[in-house]
Write a structure and sequence with these properties.
Layout lengths: L12 H9 L5 H14 L5 E5 L7 E5 L6 H11 L5 H4 L41
């Protein structure tokens, strides 16, 4: 059990932008990646909000499975971006809706680097215990 239920991922914004520049060449492609991640998390709904036309605020909210803090820290701090559990476990379909899994590389987070200088992740999940 962790004493703290929050953590930080620190990567310079210029690094994320450089890494993602060749992968996500447009805002639409970055949005597609966010939606694909929600699809793989068995979301029934995805909502992307902006303060158009300025676009200095983007919010992506979905009804996917979410991620407990322990799994989040393991994925983003210990394993790191690019270490996909979907690939490691050789999963081909999602757990709830049996959808074909889209993501395999574990780098979808980098899409956000094309859209902003900083971001926050908030995850709510159903504890089945």
């Amino acid at each position: 059990m962790l004493d703290n239920d929050s953590g930080r991922i620190r990567v310079a914004d210029v690094t994320i932008a450089q890494l993602s520049r060749g992968l996500y060449r447009s805002t639409a492609t970055a949005f597609k990646e966010l939606i694909s991640n929600a699809f793989d998390a068995d979301a029934k709904e995805v909502r992307i909000d902006t303060n158009y036309p300025e676009f200095d605020y983007i919010s992506c909210v979905d009804t996917g499975a979410g991620m407990p803090i322990e799994k989040f820290i393991n994925h983003f701090n210990e394993e790191g971006i690019g270490n996909s559990q979907k690939r490691k476990k050789n999963r081909t379909n999602t757990e709830i809706f049996n959808r074909p899994i889209i993501g395999r590389m574990g780098i979808g987070m980098l899409a956000i680097g094309q859209l902003c200088h900083s971001f926050e992740i908030e995850s709510h999940y159903l504890d089945a215990k």
